[in-house]
Design goal:
Rossmann fold; 305 residues; two-stranded antiparallel ribbon; 15 helices; 5-stranded parallel beta sheet; 3 domains
């Protein structure tokens, strides 16, 4: 997908995704060797965003399979459109003489199959990014469905036959570690641990999305993010939520978070009732702002060195 490591690094940065050399190299090798990339880490740390950043850098599309408990092959791969099959039979029957053997073959052709994201990813003329999101929410039986795809780049579908890849997608699997992913899938993948970014790196990310703001503003957002994530909240903020907060502050005309802004910003910061109550405790928000200011100074010092 990328002619060089430098092209990948430049492309990711252009999309606003800031990463280190280890991630750049791993992504580049995964693309060259057609290896899936397994990303594990806390929710909101940027795993899903990496898939979209790779697609943006490569100027291609994302086919996304959102995993959930109880997902089946039909949702992932696709199924025959029974309503369309019935309509075809009805119309053929009205013509009189029907070659039923030929019709049966026609009804189980690609024309009557509604493809799911796994099959669609194989049919792109140009490699796409196949995002299999939150794979830790499914069981190992569903994982087994993926093994043929990730090893042979094809799918064997009852009645339809074998679907071979027109192009090999770049595969990203994400896990929030609700369940341990099985070894067969791990063996086929390159592995990256994705944590929330450091304050210095998050300030860099904010800077890319809020151009024209001061270095103090960018570091302030990163310091607040670190403070919130250190507060043992039920739902700590993701990188994208911090970006939303930064843009909201710019709209409101504020360059920093102060205790007086608590009630205005509460809907952006607290996403559960327990977290809301925690921030509403006496001196709770003021204490959070104080912690954020300490981290902000650290981020500013780090960016200056």
């Amino acid at each position: 997908m990328f002619a060089s490591l430098e092209e990948l690094e430049h492309g990711l940065r252009e999309t606003g995704y800031i990463a280190d050399s280890v991630l750049h190299t791993t992504v580049y090798l995964a693309g060259k060797l057609h290896k899936p990339l397994l990303l594990e880490g806390p929710a909101g740390s940027g795993k899903t965003q990496l898939a979209y950043a790779v697609a943006g850098a490569a100027n291609t599309a994302v086919e996304r399979l959102q995993c959930y408990e109880g997902i089946n092959e039909e949702k992932a791969i696709g199924k025959f459109d029974e309503a369309l099959q019935s309509l075809c039979v009805e119309l053929k029957a009205k013509t009189g003489d029907v070659d039923w053997a030929s019709l049966r073959t026609e009804l189980h052709s690609r024309d009557f199959f509604s493809a799911g994201p796994l099959m669609r990813a194989l049919l792109w003329a140009k490699p796409c990014v196949l995002l299999i999101d939150e794979i830790d929410k499914v069981d190992q039986e569903f994982e087994a469905i993926l093994l043929e795809l990730l090893s042979e780049w094809r799918l064997s579908i009852p009645k339809l036959g074998t679907v071979e890849a027109r192009s090999i997608p770049f595969v990203v699997l994400t896990s929030n570690e609700e369940r341990r992913i099985g070894d067969p899938l791990r063996r086929r993948s390159f592995y990256l641990r994705v944590e929330h970014p450091s304050a210095e790196r998050e300030a860099e990310i904010v800077a890319l999305r809020t151009r024209g703001s001061s270095r103090e503003f960018h570091s302030g957002m990163a310091g607040l993010a670190k403070a919130l994530r250190g507060w043992s909240m039920e739902k700590p903020p993701s990188v994208s939520e911090i970006l939303d907060l930064a843009q909201a502050l710019k709209i409101l005309g504020h360059e920093q978070v102060t205790p007086e802004l608590r009630d205005v910003l509460l809907p952006l910061l607290a996403k559960t009732e327990a977290d809301r109550k925690k921030l509403l405790l006496r001196d709770g928000f003021a204490s959070l702002v104080y912690d954020a200011q300490q981290y902000t100074r650290e981020a500013l010092q780090g960016s200056a060195t």
